[in-house]
Amino acid sequence: MTSTPRHVPVAVIGGGQAGLSVSYHLKQRGIEHLVFEKETAAHTWATQRWDTFCLVTPNWQCDLPGHRYDGPDPDGFMKKDEIVAYLKAFVAKVNPPIREGVAVTRVERRDDGIFSVRTSESDYTAKEVVVASGGYQMPIIPRMAERLPGSVIQIHSNQYRNPAQLPEGEVLVVGAGQSGAQIAEDLHLAGRKVHLAVGDAPRCARFYRGRDVVTWLADMGYYEMTVDNHPLRDGVRDNTNHYVTGRDGGRDIDLRRFALEGMKLYGLLEDYRDGSLRFRDDLQRSLDGADRTYNGINAAIDKFIAEKGIEAPAQEHYTPVWEPGEPVTSLDLAGSGVTSIVWCIGFTPDFRWLDASVFNGAGHPKHRRGVTSEDGVYFIGLPWLHTWGSGRLGAVGRDAEHIVQVIQTRLGVEQFALKVAV
């Protein structure tokens, strides 16, 4: 005889910082719920980051609900172990009703309007479903990778830990967004010969006119700008993050300087055929575009300083320290010395388990600050869900509070003095 599925008012799918933030606010309001996490709470930070990983934004921006960073270095950048410790403390503080090691395999609405939630453990039902699994589930590796020689070791950025895990020889890093640029730097600093296929990622300064650029932008109100007010509107969600680093106290990442020091730069990797890697002739354009963004941000800071009459040390805008020579659009793989490739071209979401009419033609959820047009379905933790910080440790808590307020209204639950233990 089939057992009756357990019913919970709210099912939260995903136990990272987004799902935990939702749980925090649900507990504050006394709303029964369960969090389903196929691994362990907040596991991604510990299992999918390289050894020298650190935050690229200052610690003071870490502001999970009820758990603002209060350490000794607010202007510093937490390293991997420190981030893990910070998140473990958040998990303990929230003490969520979580089912770890339980994967959600299917969510669909029944005829009575209630959602059926099938999991690897057992079946449940729920009136509200919050999708907190994020947008970075499936690593992107191009089909050309299947045609590369088996002698070349290939890993994705989420598998990279340190230079020693790769075989002796030269390394090709594909993609120069935040992960690609930092991994290329990690290998470069370790003395490895690096080839870097550059894309169209922008960059920004770490420090400018006496302060961290993030601090300037915060004062300028950039991090409060909503997606509805952004010049690109929804298009900003497709933007690649600026590359910069918090390593060793924070510094710029300048690919041109890497080139001066021996790193080989190429344009976008397009194909592999006849034993050669083929690159687009766009390296100059990509480097110039990144520098244009870099100087544009600094110019906006200059304008803000002038308008507010702020005293700040003068600083020149960036001037290129290296220019590409004759374009290199192919590389004989066998003769290059490259023995390993690190793919740093991102991830794609995986919402195949959710049967709901909430996706656009590209498979991305349609929503307004996480609230979809289908009653009872919500998303959280996605890039620019509402503001720049929506997918980060800074503003995900505010998005969670907004979603939970909507849920509370739908459930008709009156808030009472149930507080998360602190």
UniProtKB/TrEMBL annotation:
Signal peptide: none annotated. SUPFAM superfamilies: FAD/NAD(P)-binding domain. Keywords: Oxidoreductase. It comes from the Bacteria. The keyword Oxidoreductase applies. Gene3D superfamilies: FAD/NAD(P)-binding domain. This is tRNA 5-methylaminomethyl-2-thiouridine biosynthesis bifunctional protein MnmC. The gene is mnmC.
